[in-house]
Design goal:
The complex is a heterotetramer. Chain B is mostly helical. In chain B, about 75% of the residues lie in helices and about 0% in strands. The radius of gyration of chain B is 17 Å and the shape is elongated. Chain B starts with a helix and ends in a 13-residue tail after the last helix. Chain C is mainly α. Chain C has six helices and no strands. Chain C has helices at about 1-25, 25-45, 50-75, 90-115, 135-145, 145-170. The longest helix of chain C has 25 residues, at about 50-75. The chains are: A mainly alpha, B mainly alpha, C mainly alpha, D mainly alpha. Chains B and C meet through helix 1, helix 2 and helix 3 of B and helix 1, helix 2, helix 3, helix 4 and helix 5 of C.
Chain lengths: ~325, ~100, ~170, ~375
């Protein structure tokens, strides 16, 4: 009973809290990093160097009035933020933060497919938010978002096929273990797939330079134009949770999860005193920082250009990558 | 209390009936399409339940095919709905009688 | 016991959401109920130890097909509900009665056959596949015994895609 | 049958109201877009949300008070507006402006051009999603505002010129600061260029977007960078030199294709040319008085005149009629470059996507205060 019920529940509780807290600090990190990139200071007022801003923001959002537009579809308007947050959190159930069973909630044999399929549910939150707001800008943004998510989902899924071929398993733990056996991170084995997943991940999380669905300058904030207070906060949480998901998945698939760099090189064995989960979080942090950095640097693509990249560049490259991987796999 | 395939079959039959009712009673063609999806799912539940009972994966293979066909059906069906809507501005199945002479 | 709890909970959810799909007046609500219904069916597949199908169910049905429905519902922005126009030749009551009768018939058959001739437990599959695990075995079956149906299905999808594009294309 | 019924669906366009409270319409511009999907079929530009009646108001103020009102037209380039007005009245009164004053006026006008272009670059880049350039450009604009503050005490509405000259001489050490600014700015321009000029996304977002031919540009009455972007040579500083521009060497950059990217390059080059002019003016700054001989009571003799200068946005012209009896103009009329360039918005946006609309509003560089007056 303890083994099957209490411990998993405890793990879920810990993980949920950890994610939500790290999301709030992600927002602080983003504001700080972008501020530094732009030669500003960023938040400085709440706590030393503005550290407590991460706590002040959620409190503000919770206390704010939650406005429901007069002629919206109330049920869908309420459901949409929940539908976009829940899938982002559910994905973490299969992410292995360390090699020991203590560091993941479950390891199912279709782990990677589970990640792909659950993230594909997130699109409903955005479409429904756009539709339920009964307003034109959110509607346009909702349509943009759904088209974008669906096309990049195809590209990312097709790219992941080549990783699955290389690893020979769908289990998230299994993929890391096969990297250990290979003695090489798959980032080196599948560099093309790595870049494609990174680009696709940016697009799937609606991050710059693919942030059309919430482009403030074009669509006045996009699908959450009509949202305020806690419901807006849920969208916000979902976006950042999705960033963490993509970073975690890329870490697992391409950067060896909890493994140290060059797991096959014996000269580096002294690095093993650092626990695996530290490696994992360090790698995740690199990707999160990369996302923020890109946002501070690049202009935004246009919607049709984005679709063209998805369909005419990423998907063909992904297909070629699968074929090449297959041939190499058969020959070797 | 053991759950036998009979239970799953009854569940499947009930879901299938809901689908049939939807197709026969509703007039919005999109809802009718969704009712058809419900019926397909009812069939899938049945196939999966019996695949486990027989400890044979052929049932699951069939489910894969059913899903593939459902996807094809949805794509073409929704294409037809859109084309009809463009021409007649309706999704009422009773008004879609172009093929009737 | 655990399976019973799961089964009854999921059955109630699946049937309840199924009824909601066909009774809700707003089409968008119907679509959302349909998604939730499919998610419950996916959980039922997990209970039935078909993890791969559960994931495919979510990925293809919930994440793909139903999004299409949602798109069409949003495009078909109706000015008047279709239920207003009544075709006098429609026999709703009869339809209800017929489907009720069909349900009774199926249930009857199931109850009768399970009483008199319990479902036989077949041990061991006829095919001995060289791989282990649900996904691997399924893949093995698809690419050996069912290769031709599999290819036909892919051609079907291709045809459907071309058909959908031709149908939805705007004539200029 | 399909061909016959197709228009029913095709006319089902979405009317999208952009502004007057929209983050990218630069103030209170309102554009009513008719969309087919995301493609703009028609655009209706609605103006007048901050009309304050400056022209009419000026006909009831005496000649010196009007300088203060001109600040409020193009409020991101107030000194240029002051200059245009003062020179027009001087032309009407036939007042000779001392050489030092003309040099200082040129320096102020060119600093103002850099400040205005900084604001344009920042907001234009921001509209296309490059948020960092926005803050970089504003950082440098701040330096110019500091220079102006040192000079006249104000940071936005300067009231920095007088009919016949300048109210104040530059404070001690100001020219060193201005030189230092020129050195800083030169480095920063290459910083902007690093972020944008060869950026693939920037190129894709600006090249071939909003192309306007030379003939069309002239036909629409465009002026300033949008006109020069199409390859038409027209710069009031060269064609009809005013202030001290005839004494300096500078180039007028011209575009070839007339797209958004060309207009971007032209403005960046104008940064450099402005710095060149400022340096020349600081080097050759003559000594002498800063006010010409102007009567206490300004009362030009009856007559009318039109005088134009090259504001950062284009040709800024003043048409003033004096009846020779009262102490205020009989008729006061401004030819604001933003207003004339805004004419070009509708033909530019038709056929483009919603995302391009914000880029195109940015590229013609309008200030609504000047459009509405």
């Amino acid at each position: 009973m303890i083994e099957t019920v209490v411990i998993p529940l405890l793990k879920i509780a810990v993980l949920l809290n950890a994610i939500l807290v790290s999301v709030t600090f992600m927002t602080l990190l983003e504001r700080k990093v972008i501020a530094w990139a732009q030669s500003r200071l960023g938040p400085m007022r709440v706590g030393p160097y503005g550290v407590l801003q991460a706590i002040a923001d959620p409190i503000k959002l919770i206390l704010k009035e939650d406005i429901t537009p007069a002629r919206c579809d109330r049920m869908m308007f309420t459901l949409a933020p929940i539908l976009s947050l829940v899938p982002a959190l559910v994905v973490f159930s299969v992410v292995p933060f360390g090699g020991d069973a203590l560091f993941y909630i479950t390891d199912i044999n279709v782990g990677l497919l589970f990640v792909i399929s659950v993230t594909s549910i997130g699109v409903y939150g955005i479409i429904l938010a756009g539709w339920a707001s009964n307003s034109k800008y959110p509607l346009l943004a909702g349509l943009r978002a759904s088209a974008q998510l669906i096309s990049y989902e195809i590209a990312v899924t097709m790219t992941l096929v080549s990783v699955i071929l290389t690893a020979g398993t769908l289990s998230m733990v299994g993929i890391v273990e096969s990297q250990q056996e290979a003695g090489l991170w798959y980032g080196f084995v599948q560099p093309v797939a790595f870049v494609l997943v990174l680009i696709g991940g940016l697009a799937e999380t609606n991050r710059a330079p693919f942030d059309m669905p919430e482009a403030e300058q074009e669509l006045t904030g996009g699908f959450h134009t009509e949202y305020s207070g806690m419901r807006f906060a849920l969208f916000f949480l979902a976006e950042y949770a999705n960033m963490i998901v993509i970073s975690a998945v890329v870490t697992v698939l391409f950067w060896g999860g909890w493994l140290r760099p060059f797991p096959s090189v014996d000269a580096l064995v002294f690095l093993d005193f650092i626990p695996g989960w530290t490696w994992f979080f360090a790698k995740m942090f690199v990707f999160l920082y990369l996302f923020i950095w890109i946002r501070a640097t690049l202009p935004r693509y246009r919607y049709d250009q984005l679709m063209r990249i998805g369909w005419k560049v990423l998907i063909p490259i992904a297909i070629v990558n699968i074929v090449v991987t297959g041939i190499v796999k058969v020959v070797l | 209390m053991e759950i036998t395939p009979a239970h799953y079959t009854v569940l499947s039959a009930a879901l299938f009936s809901i689908g049939v009712i939807g197709v026969l009673v509703r007039r919005n063609i999109i809802i009718i399409f969704m009712a058809i999806e419900l019926m397909l799912n009812a069939v899938n539940i049945n196939l999966v339940a019996h695949a486990r009972q027989l400890e044979n994966l052929v049932g699951q293979v069939f489910v894969v095919f059913v899903i593939a066909v459902a996807a094809a059906e949805a794509a073409v069906g929704l294409g037809i709905i859109l084309a009809l809507f463009r021409n007649k501005e309706t999704v009422n199945i009773d008004e879609m009688n172009v093929m009737r002479w | 016991m655990a399976e019973a709890i799961a089964f009854y909970t999921l059955s109630v959810l699946i049937l309840g959401l199924g009824v909601a799909v066909i009774t809700t007046p707003k089409t968008v609500h119907s679509v959302v109920f349909l998604v939730l219904n499919f998610l419950c069916v996916a959980v039922l597949y997990v209970v039935l130890q078909a993890e791969f199908l559960a994931v495919i169910q979510i990925l293809v049905y919930a994440g793909g097909i139903v999004v299409l429905y949602l798109f069409v519902v949003m495009l078909v922005n109706l000015k008047h509900a279709p239920e207003e126009h009544e075709d006098p030749r429609r026999l709703g009551r009869l339809a209800l009665a017929l489907s009720g009768a069909m349900l009774l018939e199926v249930v009857g058959i199931v109850v009768y056959s399970s009483r008199h001739e319990p479902f036989a437990r077949v041990t061991g599959s006829t095919e001995v596949s060289p791989v282990q695990g649900n996904v691997e075995e399924l893949g093995w079956l698809l690419y050996t015994d069912y290769l031709i149906p599999f290819e036909v299905a892919s051609v079907l999808l291709l045809v459907a895609m071309v058909g959908a594009i031709v149908l939805a294309r705007r004539e200029s | 049958m399909a061909s016959e019924a197709a228009p029913i669906f095709d006319t089902d366009e979405l009317v999208l109201n952009m502004g007057p409270q929209h983050p990218s319409t630069h103030g209170v511009l309102r554009v009513v877009l008719r969309l087919d999907g995301e493609r703009v079929v028609d655009a209706d530009v609605v103006i007048g949300y901050i009309h304050r009646g400056i022209e009419k108001l000026s006909e009831n103020r005496d000649w010196t008070q009007i300088i203060l009102l001109t600040d409020r037209m193009d409020y991101v380039a107030a000194a240029t507006n002051n200059l245009g007005y003062c020179e027009t009245v001087e032309k009407l009164m036939e007042v000779e402006v001392p050489r030092r004053a003309r040099y200082l006026r040129t320096i102020l006008a060119e600093l103002q051009r850099i400040a205005s272009h900084c604001l344009w670059l920042g907001t234009h880049a921001m509209d296309i999603g490059a948020m960092t350039v926005f803050l970089y450009a504003f950082r440098e604009r701040e330096l110019i505002l500091d220079l102006f503050e040192d000079y006249c005490g104000a940071r936005l509405t300067y009231n920095s010129m007088r009919i016949g000259g300048l109210p104040l001489d530059i404070p001690a050490g100001w020219d060193t600061k201005a030189r230092a600014f020129c050195d800083v700015m030169e480095v920063k321009i290459s910083e902007y260029e690093e972020l944008l000029t060869n950026n693939r996304i920037w190129l894709q977002r600006t090249r071939e977007i909003g192309v306007i031919s030379a003939a069309d540009a002239i036909g629409l009455g465009l002026c300033g960078p949008p006109l020069r972007g199409s390859g038409v040579f027209r710069d009031v500083r060269k064609d009809e030199p005013y202030a001290a521009y005839d004494e300096f060497e500078f180039d007028v950059p011209l575009g070839t294709k007339g797209d958004t990217y060309d207009r971007y390059l032209i403005r960046l080059e104008e940064f450099r040319q402005s710095i060149r002019i400022i340096r020349q003016a600081l080097d050759g700054l003559p000594e002498g008085p800063i006010m010409g001989k102007v009567p206490r009571l300004i009362k030009p003799k009856a007559g009318e005149t039109y005088h134009a200068i090259e504001s950062p946005k284009g040709e800024l012209g003043y048409f003033i009629v004096s009846d020779g009896r009262s102490t205020n103009p009989y008729r006061f009329r401004v030819r604001p470059p933003s207003f004339c360039n805004l004419q070009g918005l509708r033909p530019l946006v038709i056929g483009h996507l919603v995302a391009d609309v914000v880029a195109l509003i940015g590229t013609i560089d309008v200030v609504i205060g000047e459009v509405d007056r």
